[in-house]
Sequence to fold (292 residues):
Amino acid sequence: MNRPKKISATRVFNSRFTSTISISLVLFLIGIMLVLGFIAKDLSIYVRENVSMSVIVDDQMKLPDIKMFQKRLETSPYVKSVQYIDKETALKQLVKDLGENPEDLLGYNPLLASFDIYLNADYANTESMAKIEKVLKQNKDVQDVVYRKDLIHLINENVRRISIVLLALAILLTLISYSLIRNTVRLLIYSKRFLIRTMQLVGANGNFIRKPFLLENLWSGIIAAFIAMGLLYGSLYYAEQKMAGVIQILDIKTLAFVFVAMFFFGIIIILSATWLAVNRYLKMNTSDLYYV
Fold:
């Protein structure tokens, strides 16, 4: 008498365990996708904020004017940081790069003092930089503004392409995840379709029938979410050991957002899938239950 009950309980446990692991793996993949998205965003900001504009100024510019101009640049909304490079420093850098001193050949230092301006990421595009160049050239002490237009265009094009690819992958993964979780939940409820019919026959309403299924699968979703979080954190920790700086790219707030998103995504999908699966069997005739 007890053996069939034990076998049935074992089957239920195995199916529940398998479904929980399946859901956790799906959430783990979603977490990886979110992490890759944030890493790509941070890297694009880092690259754009390290592209500089060189503002070449007049040799006759006085030190008080230099400091005032630098202060004005630093308070501009488009500027992240400013570095002043005088003629002597520029010459030393050129000698270091070329291995030769042009002053020995020419008899004088041909270089001019300049400001290296590093822009905030939102302004590191060809349209904004053209406007900034126009504004800077209105200053009488500014001789020229030099920057790589082709490089800026290439960086922004690559960032745009990567963003489109990641967005498409995120949408595709979301649809696949929903489909997998929904099918997993449907398989769990399939074995209890006759129980649902029995409850209907004794007068139980839809909400009463749905409640135990929703609560049961809610706990499965919560457990699956925590398993997925553990897998994701373990993967990031392993990546940090192999490639130092991976976790540093993602701050605590970003990681917390990823974990919360995984948690609620799993809960919302599993509850909606359970609701739809139970409703399907609630609407079926008794004879149809034998053929699904």
Summary: Residues 123 and 131 are 10 Å apart (CA to CA). The chain has a mean pLDDT of 79. The first helix runs from residue 2 to 48. The chain has ten helices and four strands.
